[in-house]
Amino acid sequence: MTGTPRQRAREQTLADITRIGRDHLARDGAAALSLRAVARDLGVVSSAVYRYVASRDELLTLLVVTCYTELGDAVDAALADTDPDDPVARLRALGHAVRDWALAEPASYALLFGSPVPGYRAPAERTTGPGTRVVTALVRIIDEAHRSGKIVAPQQVPISDAVRADARRIREELDLTLPDGVLARGVLVWSALFGAVGFEVFGQYGVDTFADPRALFDHHLTVLAQTVGLVG
Amino acid sequence: MTGTPRQRAREQTLADITRIGRDHLARDGAAALSLRAVARDLGVVSSAVYRYVASRDELLTLLVVTCYTELGDAVDAALADTDPDDPVARLRALGHAVRDWALAEPASYALLFGSPVPGYRAPAERTTGPGTRVVTALVRIIDEAHRSGKIVAPQQVPISDAVRADARRIREELDLTLPDGVLARGVLVWSALFGAVGFEVFGQYGVDTFADPRALFDHHLTVLAQTVGLVG
DNA sequence: TCGATGGGGAGAGCGGTGCTCTCGCTTTGA
DNA sequence: TCAAAGCGAGAGCACCGCTCTCCCCATCGA
């Protein structure tokens, strides 16, 4: 209850627009998101919406931030329920949280991790923060496991100087202890995780190829934990 | 030079429409593909295009088939240049072929492996054939390696009965020799491969995170080859 | 208390979209 | 030769993003 009545009304309307946009996103997908349809549901003429949102792209940005935040919250909540000293369990919880959210909100997942919406470029200054929560959580799980000796050095593979330099920078920026090889494998685990989720959400497996996709994904998580050298 | 002049003209026009559609796809993305814009480039009024293509969705399907075929051809060409007895080299060639094609044709990659276009569902009877060429090639590489003893049994992880049943069916359908565990890991390698490519194409890594993405991808391929138990 | 300011909704309008329909012209094939 | 079929043009419908003007009225300073 802060600000003038007019300010509060404005915030309320903006929240309504975001909520209705979220509904339309879930129903029709990001590329079909229509400011005019949002205005109709809001009970207002289309030009009125432009008092609150500069353009369709800005509404998309609002939704991107909302979705990243929701996914990040879902992952954090899942991790809060796990044993802090069991990195494998935490990795599994993170993976299933991402998958569960993606299957519950496929259009939102598509907005964040699918094809870019034509003509729309998410502004980095507003989306990188909430957009990096999952990968940050993932890398922290691996790093904490490494600090407490729960990572066995994986089989050595050649790593180029460029990748080593990137790894060094990432290690410093995020204050990590992971050696280059584990960090590089962590990036693989990250993209593999979203690759598996994306295949399922986007229907790449086909309709009846796997009877229990969750079990398949769970298997993948086990293998990915091995890949990065995690032990119970 | 078969058929009546009218038939040949029709085929030519249809080919022109597909070509122009492909250009627009590369420039603006699938969701922005416009039949009217294609008609303009074709030098014809929009309704005339409907003599050749029933709807925008059918044009999308034409493009999906074209793109799958192109990707499949690219993979086949890359594999033709490798030693048939070196499964690791073949896996790497397949991976780089997919990545190279995806980076060269990001919008086409997005059409095939990104978010579904709103309101559009690819008809399975026309797209599953060309759409399964890559995964078929991948699984054949692994199976041939297994037949010639170039796969070491990976560390055992629990596999659910449902996944084992699916593995058995896939093994029979594709006439494979792979045990359940290797087949399941092959599926992981498949989705991980496209996950890594998708992250790069869709900009999930951020702009300056990795100076040499190809080197990172190459590292991933090495690890993925290990994951499935491939040895030199 | 009065009046200027400015927020905000309504409406018209522009150029774009997918798609349908009708109207003619032309090619085809019996 | 002549009906049938193919095909392009054009008008039209309902939708889209976005801009502009008009006008009401809540807000705020004098």
UniProtKB/TrEMBL annotation, chains A, B:
Occurrences of domain HTH tetR-type (ranges): 11-71
Superkingdom of source: Bacteria
Residue range(s) of DNA binding per entry: 34-53
Pfam family membership, one: TetR_C_33
Alphabetized UniProt keyword annotations: DNA-binding, Transcription, Transcription regulation
InterPro entries: Homeodomain-like_sf, HTH-type_TetR-like_transc_reg, HTH_TetR, MT1864/Rv1816-like_C, Tet_transcr_reg_TetR-rel_C_sf
Protein name (Swiss-Prot/TrEMBL): TetR/AcrR family transcriptional regulator
